[in-house]
Amino acid sequence: METKEGKIIIIVAPSGSGKSTLIEKVKEDFKNLEWSVSFTTRPQRAGEVDGVAYNFIPKEEFITRKDQDEFLEWAMVHQNYYGTSKKFVESKLAEGINILFDLDVQGVDSFKEYFADKAKAIFIAPPSIEALKDRLLSRGTDNLEVINVRLENARLELLRKDDYDYCVVNDDIDRAYDELKAVIKEILES
Ligand code: ADP
Ligand code: 5GP
């Protein structure tokens, strides 16, 4: 019997929308979804484990891997490089394993070019730009300069919120998570 290819689910959102909070819940609840650990040159934040949140690598190594065509897609986001391992994705999908991705808008564009409608993108929108700023300030992981770059990017990303397969507004976390769960179940059962 032929193995059914795994499903591709992408979560895309402006920084501070609550994407990581929601993704943690998804990882906990959906044991039939494997997390794609991206490579990044961004400095590791307190509490992040190398090889779990990301594979943290120096810029030189990232460029070597990119030149060796190891990334399915890569992008420069907030002045750091991020990339998805081609080998990981191709082998898991072939084994019939569903994969969950956290990508920026450029990454989603690359996935849509590569996988077309097979890749399902869920946009997580903040209730407003003001709420986004408050969340980034209260998270306390980035300085004001970094927060301002992220808010500028968020304004542009929000213009594209209707371009994705689904959109979930993260107003109240429990309500948003219930909606996200329903969307993921629908994709996995399709
Ligand atoms: P992202 O991964 O999108 O950058 P986070 O998940 O780190 O965002 O969330 C940013 C901050 O907002 C965190 O401090 C988080 O606890 C908080 N947060 C997340 N969702 C909500 C929500 N629905 N209401 C209020 N605060 C939230
Ligand atoms: P953060 O540094 O806050 O974890 O992530 C910053 C941005 O990089 C987020 O928008 C996230 O979705 C994006 N990102 C994380 N991993 C990848 C990846 O492998 N490829 C792309 N294109 N974007 C990524």
Notable features of this structure?
190 residues; alpha/beta; Rossmann fold; five-stranded parallel β-sheet; 7 helices; 9 strands; binds adenosine-5'-diphosphate; binds guanosine-5'-monophosphate
Give the overall pLDDT as a whole number: 94
Enter the CATH topology name: Rossmann fold
CATH-defined architecture: 3-Layer(aba) Sandwich
Q: Cofactors and ligands present?
A: adenosine-5'-diphosphate, guanosine-5'-monophosphate
Unreliable spans: none
Structural class: alpha/beta
Q: Largest sheet at a glance?
A: 5 strands, parallel
Number of strands: 9
Distance between the termini: 20 Å
Number of helices: 7
Structure in words:
This protein has 190 residues and is of the alpha/beta class. The protein is 44% helix and 22% strand. Strand 5 (71-77) and strand 6 (80-85) form a beta hairpin. The protein is globular, with a radius of gyration of 16 Å.
What is shown here, in short?
This protein is of the alpha/beta class. The chain contains seven helices and nine strands.
Layout of secondary structure:
Blueprint: E1 8-12, H1 19-29, E2 33-35, E3 39-40, E4 55-56, H2 59-67, E5 71-77, E6 80-85, H3 86-94, E7 98-102, H4 105-115, E8 119-125, H5 129-139, H6 144-158, E9 166-169, H7 173-189
This protein binds adenosine-5'-diphosphate and guanosine-5'-monophosphate.
